[in-house]
Structure formats: structure tokens, C-alpha cells
Amino acid sequence: MGEDGGIYMSKQGQLTYRIISELLTTVHGNRGRIAWNRKSEEMKTEVMKLVESKYFDFNMTHCLEKLKEDHGLEIKYPTFRRWCHEKKLVKRAKRRRPVARYRRARMQSEGLLLQMDGSPHRYNGKDEWCLIAAIDDATKVKGPDWYGLTLGNRRTVFTLEIG
């Protein structure tokens, strides 16, 4: 027999091993049954129609919240995500080309550009004040502080405090 006999025996051994392993494997009792918490096809079609017609521009989390609030539909997020992916209703994130960023050169002379930044706070407990700091672009010297009292949503009255 020589080499051929060895090859024949190894293939016969593999076949025997496969048959024995198939006979000894156990099968779960729920195999082939429908899951107890599976959502019906009618519910799936109803939800997908709502998503396609009414909530097409919502993200998945917001859409799921609106379905729960407005229609009383209780669906878990992974299930809803799987349904949306099956219907290809998921928007992919748009990838932009990276923008080249360059440092801007400072201004040549003092006073040409003041950079200002403000932070709103409730200093006296009821009125919202805004502290605005200014810095000169050419010299990087901090300028005077400005205090602004915000009246309503839009108007701001500024007072200058030098010192």
C-alpha cells in the first residue's frame, strides 16, 4: 500500500470523525421555533411606512422616540436599527475632504484688529451681565474690559471700565 494506503486511511478517519461528531452534537430545544418577543410583520410594515412617509429626515434615535410618543409603538433600538438597514433608510455620514488650515499673519500696526470674546454670567443674581475682553492682534496686549448688561434677548448696553 505505501503512501496511497496512508492517504486512504486518513480520509477514512476524517469521514468517521465527521459522522461521529454529527451524531453526538446536541440541538437546542428552541431550534426552528419563532422567538417569543418577535415583532409581527404587520407591525414592521406599519413602522417602515411611517418612517418612509413621515419621519424620513429624522435620525434613528429621534424617530424611535417620536414613534413611541405619537404612535405608542414600543420597539427596541437594535430591532429598529436592523429594520432601517434592511430597507436602506439609514443615511451614511458624509465624509468631507480635510481643509488645509494656515495661521493668519498678525496685523502690522497696533489697533487695526481687536479680538473680543464675551462670557455671560448672572453677577448680581437676577440680571445677566456679559464680560467682554479685548486683545490687540498686533501686540497681543490685553485691552480694557467691557461689561455689558443684556436687556431681553437682543439688546446689550456696554460700559467701559478702564483701570
Can you walk me through this structure?
- The chain has 4 helices and 4 strands; from the N terminus they run H-H-H-H-E-E-E-E.
- The mean pLDDT is 78.
- The chain has helices at residues 2-24, 41-53, 60-71, 77-86; strands at residues 114-121, 129-136, 145-151, 155-161.
- It has a 4-stranded antiparallel sheet with strand order 1-2-3-4, with no helix packed on it.
Compact overview of the structure:
The chain has 163 residues and is an alpha+beta fold. It has helices at residues 2-24, 41-53, 60-71, 77-86, and strands at 114-121, 129-136, 145-151, 155-161.
Brief descriptors of the model:
163 residues
Q: Segments where pLDDT lies below 50 for 5+ residues?
A: none
**Major sheet: order of its strands?**
1-2-3-4
Beta-strand share of residues:
15-25%
Mind telling me the C-alpha Rg?
Answer: 35 Å
Distance between the termini: 107 Å
Mean pLDDT equals: 78
Shape: elongated
Helix content: 25-40%
Give the SSE string: HHHHEEEE
For the largest beta-sheet, the strand count, sense and barrel status come to:
4 strands, antiparallel
Compute the number of helices: 4
Number of strands: 4
Structural class: alpha+beta
Topology:
Blueprint: H1 2-24, H2 41-53, H3 60-71, H4 77-86, E1 114-121, E2 129-136, E3 145-151, E4 155-161
Antiparallel strand pairs: 1-2, 2-3, 3-4
